[in-house]
Specification:
The protein is of the alpha+beta class. The protein folds into two domains: 50 residues, Winged helix-like DNA-binding domain superfamily/Winged helix DNA-binding domain (Arc Repressor Mutant, subunit A); 78 residues, Lrp/AsnC effector binding domain/regulation of amino acid metabolism (RAM) domain (Alpha-Beta Plaits, 2-Layer Sandwich). The protein is elongated, with a radius of gyration of 20 Å.
Length: 164
């Protein structure tokens, strides 16, 4: 029984109302349950219950999203990481994920093993981060691309899922 309970958490089914709630919250995370309930023609309790379920299941989380450039992060970069032996990939990924400068980290196919996006105060800070990453056992090469200007920084557009 416990096994099925655990599995259902990972296979959470989201319906049309869940996605409608998510759409309103993505547009403005401060939208009240009252406003969402009125727009969806359901009770506030329904919205609250669904919202809490989405939170409990980690479909959403509550954050204050800042514009990094406006608060002092002037250097964005992407670092491609080459790992040998490949068996160290998970361990290295965990180490890099713990770094506060890391905003995105993914395993990749192709020439390199990990892609890391970082936000740094300036080029000197970026150099420190690259040096720190390069010292991790199993990393034999990095390749850095600096972003001069970020034109779009957004959450995924839910309508792309073609759910309706």
């Amino acid at each position: 029984m416990e096994k099925n309970k655990s599995k259902s958490k990972h296979d959470m089914h989201l319906d049309e109302m869940d996605f409608a709630i998510l759409n309103y919250l993505q547009a403005d995370g401060r939208t009240s349950f009252t406003v969402i309930a009125e727009k969806l023609n359901v009770s506030i309790g329904t919205i609250r219950t669904r919202f809490n379920r989405l939170l409990d299941e980690k479909v959403i989380n509550i954050i204050g999203r800042v514009d990094p450039a406006k608060i002092g992060f002037k250097c964005y970069a992407q670092i491609a990481v080459f790992i040998r032996p490949a068996t160290l990939k998970e361990q290295i990924a965990q180490t890099i994920a713990a770094m506060p400068e890391v905003s995105f980290l993914a395993g990749t196919s192709g020439d390199y093993d990990l892609i890391v996006d970082v936000m740094c105060r300036d080029n000197d800070h970026l150099e420190q981060v690259i040096n720190e990453i390069s010292k991790i056992e199993g990393i034999f090469q990095t390749k850095t691309t600096i972003y001069f200007k970020v034109y779009k920084y957004a959450q995924p557009e839910l309508s792309l899922l073609d759910l309706y």
